[in-house]
Amino acid sequence: MKKEEKRQLETADIMQITRLLPHRYPFLLVDKIIAIDGDNSATGIKNVTLNEPHFTGHFPESPIMPGVLIIEAMAQTAGAICLLQREKNGCRPAAGKKHSVYFMTIDNAKFRRPVIPGDQLHIHVTKIKGRDKVFRFGCVAEVDGEKAAEAEVTAMIDEIGFAG
Question: Is the peptide bond before 117 cis (omega within 30 degrees of 0)?
Fold first, then answer.
């Protein structure tokens, strides 16, 4: 009987994420990505803090992370692992260009519980299908193991020009 090999899953820290995604504060909504299995699945981590600008208006007396930002965090997690996998596969953009990810659809979004400052959001993304530049992920966001939101997101990878 052979001893089973345990596969080492990857992680991406904030420096890798900012290299992959064009988003920056206050719109970068993923602090770390763990348990990366190629572009098949991963878990993004978002530390929710009171000093984030959306809490000044949503809602000052009872701050709640807007659902659209939870969905965006899901898309950023999925997009980052797709871009990381393209990089590992040697897929490079043309000179003077960079790969970026664009939302196409959001389906079956459901919000189950509020996400508040002090929570740590665990964003589980699992590829449903992917083909060339278009991919679809099933996403579940949890706080302390309790489902906060879920959705399916479809996005497209494309090349964009950049200065510098």
Answer: no
109: pLDDT strictly greater than 70 = yes
- pLDDT for residue 2: 53
What's the rounded Cα separation, in Å, for the pair 137 and 121? 17
* Residues sharing a CB contact under 8 Å with residue 31, sequence separation 6 or more, in sequence order: 14, 17, 45, 46, 47
Distance CA 1, CA 68 (A): 50
Q: Report pTM.
A: 0.92
User: Residue 28, SS3?
Assistant: coil
**Other C-beta atoms lying within 10 Å of the C-beta of residue 158:** 13
Superfamily of domain 10-161, CATH level 4: Hotdog Thioesterase (3.10.129.10)
Tell me how far apart the alpha carbons of residues 61 and 153 are, in angstroms, rounded to a whole number: 31
State the pLDDT at residue 99: 85
Half-sphere exposure of 122 (CA within 13 A, CB side): 12
> Which residues are catalytically annotated?
58
Each domain of the chain, given as residue ranges in start order, spans: 10-161
65: amino acid identity, one letter: M
